[in-house]
Amino acid sequence: MGTGQVIGIAVAATLLIYAGFVLVLVAAGRRQDARAFAGFIPDCIVLFRRLLGDARVPRRRKLLLAALVAYLAMPIDLVPDFIPVAGQLDDAIIVALVLRAVLRSGGPELLREHWPGPEASLRAISRLAYGTTAG
C-alpha cells in the first residue's frame, strides 16, 4: 500500500468519525450543537489561514502554525488515529497548545477579528487561549 493510499484512508476515516459525531448530535436532538461542531474544523482552518497571512502574528508563531498544519496532514501521529479516542485526542491536544501559543501572542482582538464562526465557538476558543471569553 502506497503513502497516497494510506493518507486517503486516514482522511476518509477521520471524515467518517467527524460525520458520525455530527449525526449523533442530530439524533440526540442537539441540532444547534451539531451545526456548531460541523463548522468548527472548517472555521479553525480559516482561522489558521488568516493568522498565517496576518503581519501582526510573529514569524515564530507562523512557523508553529505551519508545523501544526504539516503534522495534522501527515499520516504518522504520536498516537495512531486508529486507536479509539486516544488517536484523536493527541491531535486535539497539540492543536489546543499551538492555538493557545499563537493566540496569546496576538491578543483577543486578533482572535475576534479572524474568527469566522459562531459566537459560541469563539467563546470556546477564547477560553482555551486566554482562560476567559473574547466577547
TrEMBL record:
Traced from the root, the source organism's taxonomic lineage reads: Bacteria, Bacillati, Actinomycetota, Thermoleophilia, Solirubrobacterales
Q: Which Pfam families match?
A: DUF1232
Q: Which residues cross the membrane?
A: 6-28, 63-79
Q: What protein is this chain from?
A: Uncharacterized membrane protein YkvA (DUF1232 family)
User: What cellular component terms from Gene Ontology apply here?
Assistant: endomembrane system
Q: Enumerate the InterPro entries for this protein.
A: DUF1232 (IPR010652)
| Topology relative to the membrane | Multi-pass membrane protein
- Indicate the principal place this protein occupies in or around the cell: membrane
Query: Which keywords, in A-to-Z order, does the entry hold?
Result: Membrane, Transmembrane, Transmembrane helix
Q: Where is the DUF1232 domain?
A: 62-97
Provide the protein's localization. Answer: Endomembrane system
